[in-house]
Structures are given as structure tokens and as C-alpha cells.
Design goal:
Structural class: alpha/beta
Strand content: 15-25%
Shape: globular
Number of helices: 16
Helix content: 40-55%
Strand order of the largest sheet: 8-7-6-1-13-14-15-16-17-18
Distance between the termini: 23 Å
Radius of gyration: 21 Å
Length: 439
Amino acid sequence: MVYTNGYDHYFQEISADIDRCKTDGKRIVCGYTSDLDVLIDWNENTFNHITAAFLEDDPSFNEGDAIHNLADFTRIACYCAMHGLGGEIDITERSVCDYLLSQFKSCFALGGTGAQGTAALSTLGFPVIVHPSDRSREVCQLMNHPGVVVVAKQGLIPIAEACSDELPILHIILQFPKGAKLNIKNKLYEIPVSNRLILDYDTKHKQIVVDRCFRDYCESNAKNLYCYSISGFNAITDIQNLLKEIDILEAHYKKVKENNPNCILYLEGAHYYNFEVRDLLFERLSPIVDILGMNEEELIGHAKTLGKDTDESCLSSVMESLQLLLEKFPVKGIVLHTKDYSMYYGSEISNVDMVKGLTLGNLLSGTRARTARYGNFNDCKETIPCPLSTVGLAFAEELERIRTDQYVRLVPSKYIEDPACTIGLGDTFMAGVLIAFVK
């Protein structure tokens, strides 16, 4: 299929989609986790000072790594920065958090895939049902837009009425910019790609956090749901915590699909602390959910556990890995999002324009990268003239020559030369895709 630039066309449809939600009374649902992100203000000198003071071993990052002290922090952070890698890692000692916050300037932002997806959609004007796990005043305030509601025992209530007096859960976000210089053991390195580390001092999300009243509402009102975004299991480190709840989750999603086969269930991936947890979750839920969402690092990790190395610079290699995953996890399709393009790979979903979803996903995430905020209409409109990624365009042209039995659609991303933000781009992308299910 020949790619045609549809950014302006699909952007023009958003107002009608919002009106449809308000007229029909149907909703997009986003679950399950939220937190208060602490955004570190990158300082090259400070990072190099910490590295010089605490780096003991050569930089490295291995599956299951956690940060117990500042030597662990420098070892992992240097490795990720050197290679332009992102990730999410546990901090087990509060003293590490306190030290980092004493050395770097910082500010607060919203965290959690479901929460950020809600913020991105509601900034445009979509009404959303959200399941926040952190209901602190600080977190709820960041999602407090008209039309954002929470399920309570008495029914749907505005999120402002769902606030608690609990302290917020803190996730420390360290963004490192492309081109920054690292002094590691008296050798100079340059960061090749802008990316971020998410450092979690967080015990709440080691458990399943889905409220019973939320499950009951979604099952009873499934006919009023356009789609249901599922995320927030990645911080579970003990597989027993998942095994205790997986039967309940499985039955819940089956009930939603039974009551509304047209409700799209979208399971968004993340960096999982425990690959056993990831694989069990995907194996049990893939026969029920419609779509798996992931970025290229997650795809590479999945494929590697299945015995395949993925060359992300080679489209056919990426598609081979997607095919391998689709055979392992039999969903209708996989949505892959990268800095250069997004792709849907699988089978066609009736009455769903996946090109629209990919395009609006790229538009919303590109706007956040460009402006460092969830884009309103004007912000998104100003992103449309930005050039398309040359890598994405080359992949789109190459796809035209590839023969495949799968339904494949690819949309080049907007190229943002020097992103103002690398946090929440995948979450914001997912929000844009969900708009395609408002039909």
C-alpha cells in the first residue's frame, strides 16, 4: 500500500470524534496506574561528578538489575546513556532518591501510562474514564480536566472528587540528551540518542491495583465503551503476585468482550522488571485482548527471548520479529511505535482505520516531544508542518515492495530534531491510537 500523508486530514476529524463521544455517551477507558513523576533537570557536570565519585565497576545493565546504592546507579545510568537506551529500574533505598534530588534540580509531572493517556486525550477535549492507582491531590490535579471521571462505589464521579490525602508515589525520571558528553573512567563518550531512565521507589505497584468497583462498572457498561486501555503491570517483580490475580483479570476481560465484542482491548507494553511476569501476562491475555502495543526496545527484547536477534534498521527483520511475536501471542495485531515510524502488524480489524490511529498517535507524541506538554488543538496543528522522518519514509517505500499475508500499515513519524521531552511519548502515542476506536 502506497503511503499518503494524512496528518492534516485525520487531525481535522478529531472535533467530530469528540462530539461523537459526548453525543453517544460512550467512553474511552484508561487503566490502571498513576504516580507523580519527578523530572530531573539534566546537568552534564553534575552527572559526571556523581560518576567520578561513585562508579566502581564498568558500566553495565542486566535483566533484573535494581539500584541498591549510588554505585549501582552510576553503573546502570552510564551504560544506558552511553548506548542511548531507556528503561525502568527499581530503587530499593530511599537514600539514593534523596541524594539525586539534592544534586539535581527537578520538577513534578504526571506518571503512569493510563494516567498520561488520559491527560493527552482530555487536553484535546475527550471525555475519559480513568483508573488512577495514586489518587493523591497532586496526581488528580494533573488529570483534572472536564470529562475525566473515576469509578466509585456510587458510580462515576469527577476526578477532583476522588482525591485522597495520601502522599504521592514518586518515580524519578532522568532524561539524557543526544550529544551530551560523559566522562567515564577518564574516557569521553557522547550520548548517541536522547532517552530516559525511570527510577522507581515504589512498592504499591508490585501488586495488581485494579479496583473491584472499576471491574464491575466496565463489565456492566461494556456497551458504552469504545475501547479499554490496559497497562501498569510492569512493576510486578514477584510472579506469585500476578498468579494470585490473573484468573480474575482474564475473566474480567472476557466478560467485557462478551458484553461488547466491539470494545477494543488494548494492552500496552512497557519495560518489565520480570520477564516471567511479562510472558505469563501476555500468554494469558493475548487470546482475549485485541492489540498489543510496544516500542522497538520491547520488540527486540521479546524476540530475543524467542531466539531471534532483531536488526531495527532493517524493515524485514522487524517484521519477522513481529510475526514471531504474533505466533507466540495470538492477538489480532501488534502496534509498534518508534521515533521514526509506527506500524500495525496483524489482521484487519473491522470498522477500524489503523492508519488514522497510527497517524494521530504520531501526532500527539510528536507534539509532546516538541512542546514538552500534552498538546491542545493549536499545539497539534503546529506540529503538522514538521517534516516526516526520512527513515520512516524509506521504510514506508520499502513496505510497498514487501509481500506479506498480514495486514500491515506503516506511518512515518514527525521528525523532531531536538526534542524538548522524551517522557511519556509512548503513552501519548497510545492515546492517539485510541481515537481511531471512536466509531
